Amino acid sequence: MVLEINRTLNVGGITPNIYNNRNRYVSFGQQSADTFENTSLNRYTTETAIRRMIENNHKVKNIIKDFNPNMDLNIEELNELMQNHATDTRNITIGIAEHLPFALQSKVDKKALNDAAYLHDLGKVLIPKEILNKPAKLDEAETKIMHTHSELSYEMLKNSGLNDKTLKLIRNHHQNAKRTGYPWVSNNFNADLDLQILSTADKYSALTEKRQYKEPMSSEQALTIIYQDVKDGKLHPFVFKALVNYTNSPEAIQKVAS
After folding, report:
1. Partner of 96 at 20 to 30 A CA spacing, among 61, 107, 147, 227?
2. Which helix (H) or strand (E) holds 221?
3. Predicted local confidence at residue 19, as pLDDT
4. Backbone phi, then psi, for 150, in 5-degree steps?
5. What is the tens place of the pLDDT at every residue in 192-236?
6. What are the residue ranges spanned by the domains of the chain?
């Protein structure tokens, strides 16, 4: 019998500032690390590519006109993000997907999930450094600016050739079934299985990373917080169980220990 995901999640994100290297690796099927590390995705993260993407979509300039009118790019911070949080989030999404019940694994769009997990925070290249690297909690105005990063990622990549599924995952990785996340979504929005996996992986990675304003949480602490989403009906138990199983897997334990 095929199991259906009938309940969706409301996993908000941790306001990110800066990341430390704690990359985990777990293989997808029989692929090796070299095979899975698809460097072709990095073609979207070069300064030349980013400036071209900005020029190809006037909405990007409209979004940042009040806080980054000169279109300054935080390339150094972006490189660190791609090496650490983006890679970490991608590896966790793979781990969650591989530990789902078999019937649900067939419902995962592995390519879209892989690409979205790696590129979901690309828009942070346009967030001012004083906000991105602030060693304290962001105030209301700063939080509003930070929240533009997911839509910026979407708009920057919109004309890049990525498929619609991937783009929607990137745009909505901080959104939820109750539509209380960001950015805005319509009343018929559905937080599907892939989005639940991406949102959960992003949240777990953020909680267990060292940031400018906090020390990293342990896996147990992070899982306790995410379990509250299950109790609140915001996250399907199968996705949470898959995350737990992944964090207890030899691959994940060995990577954290290293």
Report:
1. 147
2. helix 219-231
3. 42
4. -70, -40
5. 999 999 999 999 999 999 877 788 999 999 999 999 888 887 888
6. 33-257
